[in-house]
Specification:
Blueprint: E1 2-4, H1 8-20, E2 27-29, H2 33-41, E3 47-49, H3 52-56, E4 61-64, H4 71-78, E5 87-90, H5 96-105, E6 112-117, E7 138-142, H6 149-161, E8 165-168, H7 171-194, H8 198-202, H9 206-211, H10 219-228, H11 230-250, H12 256-281
Parallel strand pairs: 1-2, 1-4, 2-3, 4-5, 5-6, 7-8
Antiparallel strand pairs: 6-7
Length: 284
């Protein structure tokens, strides 16, 4: 198995695989020798290389774990060396562009199955990798019309082996939904931090820190996501703007009861979400 990019996500995949499969050699690809050495030290990979041929030649499964903006480059790098019959997947937060690129770049006989494991952290680097990062989390699998069913089943089986739940969506539906559920929340957290005056920031408490935790993520990674999913992001921003306008109107005199109902409805919706997530991680 090959992991292209051994940071937090790639390193955690390697550690998770090693916790459930004892006879799988894991090869890590990266540009930085010190990162590859750390990945070996923490038990994420067996050996590392900065050469695409050495990284993927002979592997049955290749997982692209680089930022979205680098996925096209990685696909071109491995395309001449990945063996026929191998499966290529990824962990990217946007899917339409990478699925389209994979169809164009990868040779016939090398299926690509888009994956988005909904797990991670605002931290980065293989030193923060852990074997249980993916356990009980959701992985969205995004096959295209050209993806062989057998490859989709194998990739879903792989993520389930790591303890994940899986669901299927089209690449376009994934990008629309994730703009609202993941990408916009990150933009909003960053905006909340950016708008604070020094006086207000000095008074920020746990609620503010909880709300804005994800704003601590890597700017380059999120820049690529926002740009790649810009159309859906703009639509989600427009929906948020409508909600903010609604809140402003509900603060007018005489609308206090309507405002309370709006807030209670939001609280009930969040409680229902928490209960659903709890059911996902609680064994029957």
């Amino acid at each position: 198995m090959s992991i292209i990019g051994v940071g937090l996500l790639g390193g955690s995949i390697g550690m998770a695989v090693k916790s459930v499969i004892t006879d799988c050699e894991i090869i890590g690809y990266g540009h930085r020798e010190d990162t590859l050495k750390r990945a070996i030290q923490v038990g994420a990979i067996d050996r590392g290389t900065g050469d695409f041929r050495s990284a993927v030649e002979g592997s049955d499964l290749v997982i692209l774990c680089t930022p979205v903006g680098l996925l096209g480059e990685m696909l071109r790098g491995i395309s001449g060396f990945v063996k026929a019959g191998a499966i290529v997947t990824d962990v990217g937060s946007t899917k339409a562009s990478v699925v389209a690129a994979a169809v164009e770049i990868l040779p016939d006989g090398v299926p690509f199955v888009g994956s988005h494991p909904m797990a991670g952290s605002e931290k980065r680097g293989v030193e923060f990798a852990r074997a249980d990062l993916y356990r009980n989390a959701l992985c969205i699998v995004t096959p295209s019309d050209r993806t062989p069913a057998s490859a989709v089943n194998e990739v879903e089986g792989f993520w389930r082996l790591l303890g994940m739940h899986t669901c299927r969506m089209s690449p376009a539906d994934h990008d629309r939904a994730l703009a609202e559920a993941s990408h916009l929340p990150h933009a909003l957290a960053a905006a909340l931090v950016t708008m604070q005056s020094a006086e207000a920031m000095a008074l920020a408490g746990k609620g503010f820190l909880d709300t804005t935790r994800i704003a601590g993520g890597d700017g380059g990674l999120w820049r690529d996501i926002f740009i790649d999913n810009a159309g859906n992001m703009r639509a989600s921003i427009a929906k948020l703007r409508d909600q903010l306008d609604a809140i402003e109107k509900l603060m007018e005199p005489g609308k206090g009861e309507e405002l309370r109902k709006w807030l209670d409805a939001a609280a009930a919706k969040r409680r229902a979400l928490l209960q659903e997530k709890l059911r996902e991680v609680t064994p029957d």
